[in-house]
Design a protein that fits this description.
This is ABC transporter ATP-binding protein. Belongs to the ABC transporter superfamily. GO terms for molecular function: ATP binding. It contains nine helices and 20 strands. The chain is of the alpha+beta class and about 375 residues long. The protein folds into two domains: about 230 residues, P-loop containing nucleotide triphosphate hydrolases (Rossmann fold), CATH 3.40.50; about 120 residues, OB fold (Dihydrolipoamide Acetyltransferase, E2P), CATH 2.40.50.140. A hairpin with a 2-residue loop joins strand 4 and strand 5. The protein is globular.
Length: about 375
């Protein structure tokens, strides 16, 4: 069985079990040539396990893995043509940066001139040329991670695997290196698979995101698609900070569909149902930035009145929690908003910006 030549990595019916524990469950995935795919999910969802299976660091229980159209399911990691960057820098402390970058190439018998050329090229791309003669102890965390990326880069691999490479860094350094990794991908156009639990990293880096839970992929789509059209309630709740606001109620289908919540009826005129129509128990989800206040709220199709419960100024914007209809709702307002705890407030929104999920299956309606 061969994968398409346009497919860099293909995973067919992959399963992995540790005793009675199923970690990956009949998983299928295709990664395009030159694509940046992010595996995103909470701890224990199987994302790092999947990456380690692709790298050959774990033996699978069932299924097949193809890289570049070649079945590598049982091949050694060194023969898979991949470069891997770990969460821990894993640098040899007794070697200089140059020694760390060249060590694997020397062991592989690569000619000295070619080693020099590869190390020089990687150092230039990563802007670590002044650091080549330093040892890891003399480097900052960001410099060490650049060196670790450089060690993968010198392999001239077609596929790069990143296992939460920025999680040990502080917020500012994480943001800076995130930009550098994005630029690195734009320069090289290599296939990259990146594991993270940080949704900001996922949204900013990925061509596509695979949301994982319980060893399965719940949704595989572009960041925009996942954010605006989540496949189910779990994805909707997982992506976005603050999380999506949910109202629990009932969909009343028909010629004038509406959502019934408490003593309110939300008109669903602008909502497009997946299968043409629906009725029954459902969850109505609306993101904080899709809710408006003030004069905009008074003109909105759906309005709720409540009280300000909490205010979180963030500079560029202000997060406001509102208590309405015995429910707490998050709203994202302008950074100059002057609302205070206890203020009466009207919030408004349009059902066309909302998402409806079946109460039982939690799938998007």
């Amino acid at each position: 069985m061969d994968a398409s030549t346009e497919t860099s990595i293909a995973i067919r019916n992959l399963s992995l079990s540790f005793g009675l524990l199923d970690v990956l469950k009949d998983l299928n995935l295709e990664v395009g040539q030159g694509e940046f795919l992010v595996l995103l999910g909470s701890s224990g969802c199987g994302k790092s396990t999947l990456l380690n299976c692709i790298a050959g660091l774990l033996d699978v229980t069932g299924g097949q893995i193809f890289i570049g159209g070649r079945n590598v399911t049982w091949e050694e990691p060194s023969k898979r043509g991949i470069g891997m960057v770990f969460q821990s820098y894993a640098l040899y402390p007794q070697m200089t940066v140059k020694g760390n970058l060249s060590f694997g190439l020397k062991n592989a018998g690569v000619p000295k001139a070619e080693i020099e050329e590869r190390v020089s090229r990687a150092a230039k791309v990563l802007q670590i040329e002044p650091l080549l003669d330093r040892k890891p102890a003399a480097l900052s965390g960001g410099q060490r991670q650049r060196a670790a990326i450089g060690r993968a880069l010198v392999r001239d691999a077609n596929v790069f695997l990143f296992d939460e490479p920025l999680s040990n860094l502080d917020a500012k350094l994480r943001a800076d290196l995130r930009v550098e990794i994005k630029q690195l991908h734009q320069k090289l156009s290599n296939t990259m698979i990146y594991v993270t639990h940080d949704q900001i990293e996922a949204m900013t880096l990925a061509d596509r995101i695979a949301i994982m839970r319980g060893g399965q992929i719940l949704q595989l789509a572009s960041p925009n698609e996942i954010y605006n059209r989540p496949a189910n309630k779990y994805v909707a709740r997982f992506i976005g900070s603050p999380s999506m606001n949910f109202f629990e109620g009932t969909v009343d289908g028909g010629s004038a569909p509406r959502f019934i919540f408490a003593d309110e009826a939300f008109p669903l005129d602008g909502y497009e149902f997946q299968d043409g129509g629906a009725s029954g128990p459902a969850s109505f989800g609306i993101r904080p930035e899709h809710m408006v206040t003030g004069t905009e709220a008074e003109a909105a199709p759906i309005r709720l009145r409540g009280l300000v419960d909490l205010v979180e100024p963030l500079g560029s914007d202000t997060l406001v929690r509102v208590s309405a209809k015995d429910q707490l709702l998050w709203i994202r307002m302008d950074g100059l908003a002057t609302v205070r705890y206890g203020d009466p407030i009207t919030v408004g929104f349009d059902a066309a910006r909302a998402n409806l999920f079946d109460k039982v299956t939690e799938n998007r309606l």
